[in-house]
Amino acid sequence: xxxxxxxxxxxxxxxxxxxxxxxAWLTLAMVLLTxxxxxxxxxxxxxxxxxxxxxxxxxxxxxxxxxxxxxxLDGHVRVDVLYRSLKPRTQAWVDLLGSVFLLLPTxxxxxxxxxxxxxxxxxxxxxSRETDGLPFLYILKAVIPVASGLLVLQGAADxxxxxxxxxxGQE
Length: 171
Known about the structure:
Blueprint: H1 2-44, H2 49-65, H3 67-72, H4 80-83, H5 88-124, H6 137-168
Helix pairs in contact: 1-2, 1-6, 2-6, 5-6
């Protein structure tokens, strides 16, 4: 049974890690594009709304799609005032209960609410309100339920990992 749970945990974590690593490359594109926009604007007096929007879209995509990877790496923000001093077994309980009662309900609710939001944007082929803006805002809005789904999957992987840790008595 533990082997099966470990395999599921690995599969879910691998998906989130692969997505996070792939999306991390977008930060390079974002930095290069930002530098280009600054050079064009202040060096040549050339500016375009769509260039600014691309940077915003990249930033939002990186932030949303890397959230599950960050959770997997335990890089998320937490209040460590008490957590640090707890025994590993107690930390596992805190992580397990936090995932079950905080992470999964929040990410699940966001997934549920954002699905219709993204679906309507796709139906309308929603575009930027700016004249020179990007014509595919609907793609960015579709990232919201995808990111929520990845958080649900990584939360499930964390729950499996903590449950195995607690059941096996691993420190």
